[in-house]
Each structure stands twice: as structure tokens, then as C-alpha cells.
Amino acid sequence: AGNSKSSKFTAVPPGPPMYLDLVYIPNHSNRKNVDVEFFKRVRSSYYVVSGNDSAAEEPSRAVLDSLLEGKAQWDCNMQVTLIPTHDSEVMREWYQETHEKQQDLNIMVLASSSTVVMQDESFPACKIEL
């Protein structure tokens, strides 16, 4: 009764899984908006992981771990490719520490060190094939 609100925020409402080709993990892969439920429901062949602000904990290790936990609950073992937009210490540590589990779950992580040079500009990039 009253105006009490639950302190638990769910980024994805309950319901059946959604299957997509490509998903950009929202809010620079911040753990406030993405949890295990997100990965249980939003199933994709490709997830783009943005974030290169270690002070803001982006990308979040909790989000990366949620991918593993969520995918472990899928009823199929489809290939998932994780595409980081930036090289980060969090991503490197997570990759090394969970590599065996990634292989078991059929998750591949693309290298994020590609650079595109156009005229006088250069910027990080990666190729996505669907």
C-alpha cells in the first residue's frame, strides 16, 4: 500500500525472448540499464559494447558477466559475437578470465583495435557482417 516503489529496476519487461541480428548495448554498457534479464530476453547474433570511460565503469564488468549468465539460460547455443568499440582494461581482463566459458557458450569477441583513416581523420572501427 502507499507510494512505495521497488528499488529493483528491470531494463526489459517480462515476456518471451526477442531474437535480433544486431543489438547495441544501451547506455555505454552501464550496469544500471543492462542486467541478466536483458540478455535472457534480448537475444542477438551480435552485441556492440560501447564505453571507454573507466571512471564511469564503462563498459561494466557486471554487464559482461550478465551476458554470460543470460546466454547460459538460452535454449539454443547459437553463435554470439561481441563487438567492443574501444579497447579497455575491463574488456581485456574479462576476456582473459572468462575465455573458456565464452567458448562453452559459443561467444566470440572481436578485436577492437581496427582504425579507419579518411583524409585527415582517423577513428576506431570494426566490420560487421550479417
Tell me about this structure.
- This protein is α/β, with parallel strands linked by helices and 130 residues long.
- The chain has one domain (18-124).
- The chain contains four helices and six strands.
- It has helices at residues 26-29, 36-41, 61-71, 89-104, and strands at residues 18-24, 42-49, 80-84, 107-109, 115-118, 121-124.
- It has a four-stranded parallel sheet. Strands 5-6 form a two-stranded antiparallel ribbon.
- The protein starts with 17 loop residues before the first strand and ends in a 6-residue tail after the last strand.
Walk me through the topology.
Elements: E1 18-24, H1 26-29, H2 36-41, E2 42-49, H3 61-71, E3 80-84, H4 89-104, E4 107-109, E5 115-118, E6 121-124
Parallel strand pairs: 1-2, 2-3, 3-4
Antiparallel strand pairs: 5-6
Organism: Peucedramus taeniatus (Olive warbler)
Protein name: MAP1B protein
GO molecular function, one term: microtubule binding
